[in-house]
Design goal:
The complex is a heterodimer. By secondary structure, chain A is mostly helical. Chain A has 13 helices and no strands. At the A-B interface, helix 1, helix 2 and helix 11 of A face helix 1, strand 3 and strand 4 of B.
Amino acid sequence: LREPVPPPFEIPDIITYAVPGFVALILIEMIYVRATHKGRYQFADSATSLSMGLGNQVAGLIFGGLVIATYFWVSQHRLFDLGWTWPVMLACFFAEDLAYYWFHRIAHERRWFWASHVIHHTSQHYNLTTALRQTWTGAISLSFIFWLPLVLIGFPPEMVLMFQAISLVYQFWIHTEAIDRMGPLEWVLNTPSHHRVHHAINPRYLDANYAGVLIIWDRLFGTFVPEDRDEPIRYGIISQLGTFNPFRVAFHEWAGIWRDVTNAKSLREVLGYVFGPPGWSPDGSRKTSASIKAAWAARQQGAAVAAE
Amino acid sequence: MSEWIILAASAAVVALMVLVAALLGFRERVAVTEAELTRLAEAEGDQAERALVDAEGRLGIALLRSGKVLIARAMGDGIGARELGVGAVRAKRVSAGVRLDVNDIGFPPVVMRMKHEPPAWLLNLGASR
C-alpha cells in the first residue's frame, strides 16, 4: 500500500473557520436589503435555506468519512507521486475547479445527480442564505466521483479536499443581488452577476455558468451566458416547490425518481428516468431545459418575423 | 465530539439568524389571485379558461385551454406553481373545503377553503384515474 504524501503543514478546517464570516455577511446583507431594497429576503425561505445548511452538516458527519476513505483508497492506486510543491498546488487548484465545473454541469444535465443538487436551486430568492441551501444526499448520489481522477493522477487527497473547501467558501459570497458587476474580474472569476444567471429559470439563462471559482471553463466549453440588465431574473426551479419543509425539499426529486421508476414499463424508461435529463419522459410530454429553450427560441423567432 | 459541539453551535446561530430575519420584517406574503393565474398561464403560452382562488388567497387552480391544470400556491412573497395533466390532480371534498393532491412530495396536498359551493369541474379532477 502506498500512503499519500502527507501535507507539510497543518491544514485548518477551512469551512468551520469561514462560518463566522458567513454569519456576519448574512446579517450585513439582511440589513442592507432592508435599508436599500436591493435584493429580497423572506423569513420562511431563509429558515429553510439555513436548515438545509444545518442538515448538510449532519450529512457530512454521517457520510463524510466514507468520501474521505474513498479518496485515500483511490490514492493508493495513484499513477504519479505529485507531492506538496507550489507548482503542484497551483495545478491542483485549476484541476479541482475543472472537476467542479464538470460535476456541476452533469449535476444539471443528469437526473441522478440533479436529484441531489436541485436542493440548492429550490429557493425563489437569491441571497447569502441561498448559498447555504445545500444537499443532504450528495454522498449517496456519489457526487464525489468527479474528483477521484485528480487523486488517481496523484494529487494528494488532502490537497484536493483543501481546494474543494476553498471553492465552497469562495462560492458563498457570490449568492447576492447586492453586488452588481465587478469590471475586469468578470472575465476570469465567477461573480455574483454570473452566478445569478446560473440560478435563473428564464429560458435564455437555463443551463449556463456552471463555474466554481473561474468562469473561464464556461467560456471555454460554450456554457457562458452574460447577465442582461433588461431581463429581470426569476429564481428557483421550473416546477417551483409548494413547501418550505426541509425534509420535503431534501427528498422531493428522489421521491419523483422512485415514483417514475416504479411506474416505468421498460428498462429504457427506467434508465431514462434515472439518468436522462431532468424532465425526461418516454413520450416527451414533460419539460426539459432543452424543450423549454427550444420553445422560447421559437417564440422569439416568431416575434421577430412578426415585427418585420 | 467536537463536531457535534460545532453542530449544536451552528443550530443556535441558525436560530439567531432566522430571528433577525423575522425582526427585520422579512415576512411579506403574496396572495394568489385570478389575475395571477391568468398571467402564469400566459407565461406558459396557454390560457386560463376557468379559474378559482380559495377564500384566503393561499391557493388557486385554473383549467387551461390546452386541457392541463395549473395549481398555484402562495409561498411567502413568491408563488409555487405547477402545470399538470388533468389526471395528475386529485380533488376530494373534505369538511373544510376541497383537498387537492398532486402526488408530489415537493408540492404537498392542500385544502382549498371555499366561501361557496365548489364547482363541479374542480370536484371532477382526477375522477377518471
